[in-house]
Design brief:
Helix 5 packs across helix 6. By secondary structure, this protein is α/β, with parallel strands linked by helices. The chain folds into two domains: 262 residues, 3-Layer(aba) Sandwich (Rossmann fold), CATH 3.40.50; 61 residues, no CATH class. Helix content is 49%, strand content 15%. Strands 1, 2, 3, 4, 5, 6, 7, 8 and 9 form a nine-stranded mixed beta sheet that branches. Strand 8, helix 12 and strand 9 form a beta-alpha-beta unit. The protein is globular.
């Protein structure tokens, strides 16, 4: 029975991933490197000589969600610039044959290096390249910038509710306690917040287990649901975090592969990623930097963004806090987000 299920799953993957279904001439190609086949979509205004590379969340997430779920975000950027969407190794609908030792932060950085060099070769060295990293994409972007001379490859770095430090879950635990107490006092979503408060109050913050880390992450997303229900977190265009997460189930490209990749890659990289803390090295980042953060992000709380801004070495850095946003400011306060990104890119391109 198990073999039968696996065979059916493989057939579905193959059927849903025919290149002919996705290819659009010069707009689509595969990045093939070190055993991985990563789909790359280059959309928008390539004559602008400015390319924004989207680094999706995860590890194991899906870059097409940024194009498909929040169209005001993607379409506006694509009118002005070329926007590069790619599914990272072991993410979305990427494919390949490699072992777990190739699913690391260092390998993701190498893949990104190859992508940028390929884009320069394909579209010209005279173009300007910006990185925009969301959530785990913020970790990947930071790791990329801290390696050797990689900062010379790009014109600017945009971090959106990212993470240079995954190791200190005390920050997440305390942020959840603080907001839970506040919302209970205001009699909002009482049962949900009480569950969060009860759990967080029992966490041993001197020795947070892997199980507790996973639960804190899950409660970070639940907190956003409750805050959205009570209209503390809002959305300019009615797009919710739930739609962002559910894209992995309902993607028109291959929901099965995307979901399996998310589960496997997230699990494979959990130990490495959960120990990351780049704080002592952030002074090395001299690239122009824009940090955008939701005040009500309880997946990666605001304190992380403030720490990043304080420690990044660039003289050309700016941080904007979005008062009505959670973990995905491009979905919540889309118009303000676009204003910040466009102003930054136009300044440093």
């Amino acid at each position: 029975m198990n073999k039968f299920v696996i065979i059916i799953m493989v057939i579905l993957m193959i059927a849903a991933c025919k290149k002919s279904d996705m290819s659009d001439g010069d707009n689509f190609f595969y990045l093939k490197t070190e055993g991985a086949y990563m789909p790359v979509f280059v959309e928008g205004n390539k004559t602008s000589n400015t390319f924004i590379i989207i680094l999706h969340g995860g590890p194991g997430g899906d870059d097409q969600v940024y194009k498909d779920v929040c169209l005001p975000f993607s379409e506006t950027l694509e009118e002005k610039y070329a926007v590069v969407y790619y599914d990272q190794r072991g993410s979305g609908i990427s494919q390949g044959k490699y072992d777990d030792e190739m699913v690391t932060v260092a390998q993701h950085v190498k893949d990104l290096e190859v992508l940028i060099k390929l884009l320069k070769y394909k579209y010209g060295n005279d173009n300007n390249f910006f990185l925009l990293g969301h959530s785990w994409g913020g970790t990947l972007g930071t790791a990329f910038l801290l390696k050797e001379n990689n900062q010379n490859l790009i014109s600017g770095w945009i971090e959106v509710d990212g993470a240079h430090n995954f190791s200190d879950f005390k920050i997440v635990n305390q942020a959840l306690i603080t907001i839970a107490e506040d919302q209970i006092a205001n009699e909002n979503s009482l049962d949900g917040w009480q569950e969060i408060l009860d759990f967080c109050s029992e966490v041993d913050t001197n020795n947070i287990s892997d199980g507790d880390k996973s639960q804190l992450n899950a409660f970070g997303f639940k907190a956003e649901e409750y805050l959205s229900t009570d209209e503390i977190i809002t959305s300019d265009y009615g797009v919710t975090l739930g739609e962002l997460m559910n894209h992995n189930y309902f993607s028109s490209f291959n929901p099965l592969m995307a979901k399996l990749n998310l589960s496997m890659t997230n699990s494979t990289m959990f130990d490495e990623v959960s120990k990351i803390d780049y704080t002592p090295e952030l002074y090395k980042i001299q690239t122009p930097t824009l940090i955008l953060w939701g005040r009500h992000d309880y997946v990666l709380p605001l304190k992380l963004g403030l720490d990043a801004y304080e420690n990044i070495g660039s003289e050309n850095k700016k941080m904007t806090i979005f008062d009505n946003s959670g973990h995905s400011v491009m979905l919540n306060e889309t118009d303000k987000f676009l204003e910040e990104v466009i102003s930054f890119v136009d300044t440093y391109k």
